[in-house]
């Protein structure tokens, strides 16, 4: 189910405008350290984050199964933007800015639904599913409707995952979407993730700047102290805590048997791979005797797509800072991080199983969602506490640990993009 807008109960406290310029802040930022306070609070920097970074990313928005029929639509709200994702009569998925070409009202008000046309509730201008203005009551006879179509938003789909990009097509600095599609071609084709459906969706409202959400997701230095469940299931956490790289031998051995099954192996976790949009993936064994990310290590749903063997592995995808996936042999979890205000972000996790799997028979929802629900609840708490500390007059940037390489690299990427 798509949530009703964002659950922002109170206006977050805003930092007063910083007397130091953003350029100065960027210039004095120490490499390998977290950011200065204004980067996590200042409304002007948030605006700049949106313009220079977020708006240029391919953002995962929805799975094709969420809008299966002609006229099905859903809204994706991010900061000041609202995007209508809608399936046309020709089966194509299109995206439009939810802004009427008359006087600018939002057109769609429901988070999801089915529409024959897009009719603005204000003065009832009517747009078709391709965004063309088809009726404008009471306008002069010579009014040229063709000049007022809805503003289209870039949209791409790969393996059933729909991404949008808020920037204009000819804007500079946008990743060629083929790069993201290629990661999916290599590592998700076998699982046929297009042929899944969402059986659970959870929204985790997070009182923190989007960069604290991303920073947290990009490192597992916090896993042993903050995620007892994730640490119990994922053997790599303790191994990496003991000694960096000490899980590599286990991965190599597993890769050999996994390759023999005809399953993909490999890691290219490109946090720094693309200056435009860092993306990448890794595959690794979960833990001896575990076939999926579940509490007891046993299957939680039928094997996905064309997977014939339980290889005991997990695949993580980063499509960019705000869009991630964790894929197992029997289920997929999609992670969507959305900046809303400088100190509020929305985290949405969806759980996908094979499209024809039946609840109670083929899967048990509690067992299925256990790993990422318990982990994301913990993450929300630690991220909120992080923002609270960052807001203190005594906060100053701290050094990233070697195990936080992902976050550190992403912070450098962020600064480079922000200053460019
Ligand atoms: S603002 Fe949409 S019809 Fe007037
Ligand atoms: Fe975490």
Describe the structure.
By secondary structure, the chain is of the alpha+beta class. It has two domains: 53-174, Rieske Iron-sulfur Protein (3-layer Sandwich); 177-393 and 400-419, Naphthalene 1,2-dioxygenase Alpha Subunit, Chain A, domain 1 (Alpha-Beta Complex), CATH 3.90.380. It is built from ten helices and 17 strands. It has helices at 22-27, 43-52, 177-187, 210-217, 223-226, 228-233, 235-242, 248-260, 365-390, 405-419; strands at residues 59-63, 72-78, 81-87, 93-97, 112-114, 118-119, 126-127, 133-135, 152-158, 161-165, 196-206, 267-268, 280-285, 313-320, 323-327, 332-341, 344-354. The strands form three sheets. A seven-stranded antiparallel sheet has the order 1-10-9-4-3-2-5. A seven-stranded antiparallel sheet has the order 11-17-16-15-14-13-12, sandwiched between helices. It has a three-stranded antiparallel sheet with strand order 6-7-8, with no helix packed on it. The longest helix has 26 residues, at 365-390. The site of fe (ii) ion (FE2) has 5 residues, from α9.
Write the layout of secondary structure elements.
Layout: H1 22-27, H2 43-52, E1 59-63, E2 72-78, E3 81-87, E4 93-97, E5 112-114, E6 118-119, E7 126-127, E8 133-135, E9 152-158, E10 161-165, H3 177-187, E11 196-206, H4 210-217, H5 223-226, H6 228-233, H7 235-242, H8 248-260, E12 267-268, E13 280-285, E14 313-320, E15 323-327, E16 332-341, E17 344-354, H9 365-390, H10 405-419
Antiparallel strand pairs: 1-10, 2-3, 2-5, 3-4, 4-9, 6-7, 7-8, 9-10, 11-17, 12-13, 13-14, 14-15, 15-16, 16-17
Bound molecules: FE2/S2 (inorganic) cluster (FES) and fe (ii) ion.
């Amino acid at each position: 189910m798509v949530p009703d807008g964002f659950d922002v109960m109170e206006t977050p406290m805003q930092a007063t405008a910083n007397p130091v310029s953003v350029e100065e802040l960027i210039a004095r930022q120490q490499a390998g350290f977290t950011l200065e306070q204004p980067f996590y609070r200042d409304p002007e920097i948030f605006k700049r984050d949106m313009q220079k970074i977020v708006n240029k990313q391919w953002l995962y928005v929805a799975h094709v199964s969420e809008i299966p029929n002609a006229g099905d639509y859903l809204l994706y709200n991010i900061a000041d933007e609202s995007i209508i994702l809608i399936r046309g009569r020709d089966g194509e998925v299109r995206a439009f800015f939810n802004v009427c070409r008359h006087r600018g009202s939002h057109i769609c008000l429901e988070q999801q639904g089915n529409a024959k046309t897009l009719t603005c509730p204000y003065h009832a201008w009517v747009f078709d599913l391709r965004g063309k203005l088809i009726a404008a009551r009471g306008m002069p006879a010579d009014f040229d409707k063709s000049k007022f179509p809805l503003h289209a938003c870039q949209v791409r789909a790969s393996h059933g995952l729909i991404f949008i990009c808020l920037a204009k097509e000819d804007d500079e600095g946008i990743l060629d979407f083929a790069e993201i599609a290629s990661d999916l071609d290599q590592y998700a084709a076998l699982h046929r993730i297009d042929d899944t459906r969402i059986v659970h969706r959870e929204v985790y409202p997070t009182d923190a700047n989007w960069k604290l959400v991303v920073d947290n997701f990009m490192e597992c230095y916090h896993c042993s102290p903050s995620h007892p469940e994730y640490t119990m299931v994922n053997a790599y956490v303790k191994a990496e805590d003991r000694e960096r790289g000490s899980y590599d031998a286990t991965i190599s051995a597993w890769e050999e048997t996994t390759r023999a099954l005809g399953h993909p192996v490999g890691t290219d976790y490109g946090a720094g791979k693309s200056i435009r949009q860092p993306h990448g993936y890794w595959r690794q064994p979960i833990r001896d005797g575990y076939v999926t990310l579940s509490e007891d290590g046993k299957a939680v749903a039928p094997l996905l797509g064309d997977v014939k063997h339980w290889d005991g592995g997990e695949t993580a995808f980063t499509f960019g800072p705000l869009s991630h996936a964790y894929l197992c042999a029997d289920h997929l979890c999609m992670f969507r991080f959305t900046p809303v205000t400088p100190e509020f972000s929305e985290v949405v996790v969806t759980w996908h199983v094979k499209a024809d799997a039946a609840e109670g028979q083929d899967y048990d929802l509690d067992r299925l969602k256990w790993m990422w629900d318990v982990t994301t609840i913990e993450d929300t708490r630690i991220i909120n506490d992080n923002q609270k500390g960052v807001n203190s007059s005594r906060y100053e940037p701290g050094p990233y640990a070697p195990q936080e390489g992902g976050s550190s690299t992403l912070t450098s990427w962020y600064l480079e993009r922000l200053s460019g």
